[in-house]
Amino acid sequence: MESTTKAKITVEVTVNAPLEKVWTAFNDPKHVINWCFASDDWHAPAAESDFREGGKSKTVMAAKDGSFSFDFEWIYTKIKDLETVEYALGDGREVSIQFEETADGIKVTETFDPESENPVEMQKGGWQAILDNFKKYVEQN
Fold first, then answer.
1. Alpha carbons 48 and 32: distance in angstroms, whole number
2. Residues 133, 31: contact at Cβ < 8 Å?
3. CB 102 within 8 Å of CB 13
4. Other beta carbons less than 10 A from residue 114's beta carbon
5. What's the CA gap between 123 and 38, in Å, rounded?
6. By the 8 A CB rule, do 101 and 19 touch?
7. Taking 60 as the threshold, does the pLDDT of residue 4 lie above it?
8. Taking every annotated instance into account, which residue ranges of this chain make up the domain Activator of Hsp90 ATPase homologue 1/2-like C-terminal (predicted)?
């Protein structure tokens, strides 16, 4: 089954911080390197972003022990300031991130096409862990 025929996966978190701070921390590489990893034994040693529609971006995700790393690369397809970021991954999968002001803070919702190598629950868990790291980073800085 091709990934385009699988149901999209959604993860979300509510961040107790102003919208502008949440937006910047999510999209600026100088912040991304501080939160874009799923567990404490991983890190993001480098990130770069051409933050515009059609712009290419990349985050290097690596095990801290040096045993494994990979480049997470994408091209922005839609940016609506302080509201929406959409991009296409190198393998054609699509990702959409929504930023919504709520009474409890800024709700960040990521919806993405699953890949076919790993179970859906594993993918959802990994993306949720990264989003949880994002929340923790923004609220502590």
1. 9
2. no
3. no
4. 18
5. 11
6. yes
7. no
8. 16-139
Helix (H) or strand (E) holding 98: strand 94-102
- Residues in a beta bridge with 72: 59
CB 115 within 8 A of CB 90: no
Strand arrangement, sheet containing 84-89 = 9-15, 105-112, 94-102, 84-89, 69-80, 56-63, 42-49
What is the C-alpha to C-alpha distance for residues 15 and 9, in angstroms, rounded to an integer? 20
pLDDT at 1 over 90: no
Domain ranges of the chain: 3-140
The mean pLDDT of 112-133, rounded to a whole number, is 95
As given in the structure block, the two tokens for residue 86 are 């959409």
Average pLDDT over residues 34-59: 96
SS (H, E, C) 5-44: HCCCEEEEEEECCCHHHHHHHHHCHHHHCCCCCCCCCEEE
How many angstroms separate the CA atoms of 84 and 57, rounded? 16
